[in-house]
Specification:
Blueprint lengths: L8 E3 L1 E3 L4 H5 L4 E3 L16 E3 L13 H14 L5 H16 L5 H7 L9 H18 L5 H19 L9 H16 L3 H16 L11 H11 L2 H13 L3 H10 L6 H13 L5 H13 L3 H11 L1 H8 L3 H12 L5 H16 L7 H33 L1
Antiparallel strand pairs: 1-3, 2-4
Helix pairs in contact: 3-4, 3-5, 5-7, 6-7, 8-9, 9-11, 10-11, 12-13, 12-14, 13-14, 13-16, 16-18, 17-18
């Protein structure tokens, strides 16, 4: 069914010379037609920003010249642009480049100022946007340079945030610390991994005397297990079984999927189906979390296909469980081989009438994998070239 709805969009904008009062209380232009031209005087050397304070629910794109002026402004003095709109610029640019409406290099250049950024919202926006690029580059030759770039950008925030969680600081400062530590460890910063392992070891030695701060638990648990071996994993497993606190059990279930040992992950998946210590309704969560582990993604995919009869019998008619599991299993697929393999599997279970409640999820999975393949083909060489220019 085709609808001819026209949404009324509240458009606001400011220029490089706009006053603080204008940023705080801008005039609103209601866009009620499909296209509308607004006439305003802007000096040739001045930039313009739309959707002030991110009041409207829409993306804002600019011509190349304006994007470049915004990049220059961020590099020169990013505080001229308010916090919300700095976050918006990062979020919009990556969304637009992913959709093919903007050059990926411009999106990346917008992030070059981040080493000077101290606010939570822009960092949260940037790190969320970088997640997709991280996933797409993870198995390419460009990943080492990408890691190096991310560590260089996050390092000032990591150093200023530190590991000391007082529990009585402003909430956004807590969120900012979590972002800084998670990102530093995720991208392999040695000091972060070492400190997480140290705190995990202290916790193992005496849990009562050395509890991990609540806000840092997932970071410490996950990276302690990733850097450790079977002893670290088994300790967390026993803590999971002993705990009666729902949030603690959920955090541990998540962290247990962080292991870098193939056999441990395989054992974890088998335990998820045993229904002894892991509840039936949590098994799909465990499988999905292992699938998000760069090492576990192939293990989880093979496991689901190997035990498909059991998994389909349990979750085939559960819309939420199966759809969520399918998304986690397939969202990282980004090669032609993986795409064809996925299509063959969906055809196979379709012939057996076993798509169940996840029929739409499997269709969307194929579409997502196809988009991932296209992104890699369209952007890998460009991103690699940009990273190489930074390394010179």
């Amino acid at each position: 069914m085709c609808f001819s709805y026209i949404w009324q969009v509240p458009f606001t904008f400011a220029t490089q010379r706009s006053s603080a009062s204008h940023w705080n209380r801008p005039n609103v232009e209601w866009l009620k037609e499909r296209t509308r031209k607004l006439d305003t005087r802007v000096a040739d050397r001045d930039w313009i920003i739309g959707n002030l304070g991110v009041f409207g629910y829409y993306r804002t794109n600019y011509d190349d010249r304006n994007w470049q002026m915004l990049i220059n402004q961020l590099n020169t003095d990013h505080t001229v642009i308010p916090v919300k709109n700095r976050a918006q610029l990062l979020d919009d640019s990556f969304a637009l480049s992913r959709a093919g409406h903007m050059d990926i290099v411009q999106s990346l250049e917008l992030t070059e100022y981040l080493g000077k950024e101290t606010e939570y919202l822009p960092w949260e926006s940037a790190l969320t946007s970088f997640n997709y690029i991280n996933e797409m580059l993870g198995r390419t030759g460009a990943y080492g340079m990408f890691q190096k770039y991310m560590i260089s950008q996050i390092l000032p925030l990591y150093n200023s945030s530190g590991w000391r969680d007082t529990g009585n600081e402003p909430q956004l400062d807590t969120f900012k610390r979590i972002d800084a530590l998670q990102a530093a460890c995720k991208y392999g910063y040695a000091d972060c991994l070492s400190e997480a392992s140290r705190l995990y070891t202290l916790w193992m030695q005496n849990p009562a005397a050395n509890p991990v701060p609540v806000n840092l638990k997932l970071i410490v648990y996950c990276n302690g297990i990733r850097q450790g071996g079977v002893a670290e994993w088994d300790f967390a497993w026993e803590r999971y079984k002993e705990s009666n606190v729902a949030t603690e059990k959920s955090t541990l279930l998540n962290a247990l999927s962080c292991s870098a040992d193939v056999w441990i992950l395989e054992r974890y998946l088998n335990r998820a189906l045993e229904e002894k210590s892991i509840r039936r309704q949590d098994a799909d969560y465990v499988i999905g979390k292992v699938a998000r582990n760069p090492i576990g993604r192939f293990i989880a995919w093979d496991f689901v296909r190997n035990y498909w009869d059991t998994i389909f019998k349990r979750y085939g008619e559960s819309i939420f469980n199966m759809a969520s599991l399918v998304k986690r299993l397939t969202s990282l697929k980004n090669t032609d081989f993986e795409l064809q393999e996925l299509k063959a599997w969906v055809e196979f279970i379709g012939d057996r009438n076993e798509l169940g409640s996840a029929a739409n999820a499997w269709t969307q999975a194929i579409e997502t994998a196809g988009n991932n393949v296209k992104w890699v083909k369209d952007n890998l060489q460009t991103v690699n070239g940009w990273l190489e220019t930074l390394a010179v």
